[in-house]
């Protein structure tokens, strides 16, 4: 049976200023079994409907957090989403565990090239290290951590490279 994949996109202007995340999100949305939620569009006032988010999560076998890397982290709404949706008594603690066994994958886009995200590169850390807080969070709520999907050098990609990344993404999230 194919997986039910929920892609939560955290880009402050997905259908406007975004180039890469928009292409990835549209490729995901065109893939059978994949549901995409544009979180900033759903919550322009930054008031997250926690029940709606939790209901969407319950139906998923795999959850994808898709976002551009902003200051070696995520846009702020993803952090807020974690703080509010991964609630005590729902995601963890007594009466929690509702996400146990659902896979979590991060899909990130970065302006820098991949060689800058190495121990020797000028960022001094890998993307895996940048994502460590999310990996520990996944572990804490019982979600198996899937290898992240990353697109680098976003400012210099040709249209063809963006289209290829979007095709690769549609495969990766359903593999
Ligand atoms: C506020 C802000 C912070 C950023 N910080 C980083 C960063 O820490 N590392 C990086 O590689 N790129 C950084 N970038 C570049 C974005 O990651 C890049 O523009 C984005 O992934 C492109 O995707 P988009 O076309 O969907 O917007 C930053 C961009 C902005 C606007």
Automatic annotation (TrEMBL):
Query: Which intervals hold domain Flavodoxin-like fold?
Result: 3-171
Q: Which organism is it from?
A: Bifidobacterium vespertilionis
- Indicate yes or no for the key word Oxidoreductase: yes
A single GO molecular-function term is:
FMN binding
List, alphabetically, the PANTHER family matched.
GLUTATHIONE-REGULATED POTASSIUM-EFFLUX SYSTEM ANCILLARY PROTEIN KEFG
Q: Name one Pfam family in it.
A: Flavodoxin_2
Coiled-coil segments: none
The protein in question is named: Flavodoxin family protein
Question: What keywords appear on the UniProt entry?
Answer: Oxidoreductase
């Amino acid at each position: 049976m194919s997986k039910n994949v929920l892609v939560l996109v955290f880009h402050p202007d997905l259908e406007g200023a975004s180039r890469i995340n928009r292409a990835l999100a549209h490729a995901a949305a065109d893939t059978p079994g994949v549901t995409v939620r544009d979180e900033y569009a759903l919550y322009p006032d930054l008031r997250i409907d926690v029940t709606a988010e939790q209901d969407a999560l319950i139906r998923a076998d795999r959850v994808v957090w898709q976002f551009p890397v902003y200051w070696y982290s995520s846009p702020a709404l993803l952090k807020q989403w974690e703080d509010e949706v991964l609630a005590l008594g729902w995601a963890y603690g007594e009466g929690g565990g509702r996400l146990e066994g659902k896979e979590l994958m991060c899909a990130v886009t970065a302006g820098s090239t991949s060689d800058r995200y190495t121990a020797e590169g000028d960022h001094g850390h890998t993307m895996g290290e940048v994502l460590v807080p999310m990996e520990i969070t996944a572990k804490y709520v019982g979600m198996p951590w899937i290898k992240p999907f990353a697109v680098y050098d976003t400012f210099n990609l040709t249209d063809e490279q963006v289209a290829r990344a979007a095709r690769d993404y549609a495969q990766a999230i359903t593999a």
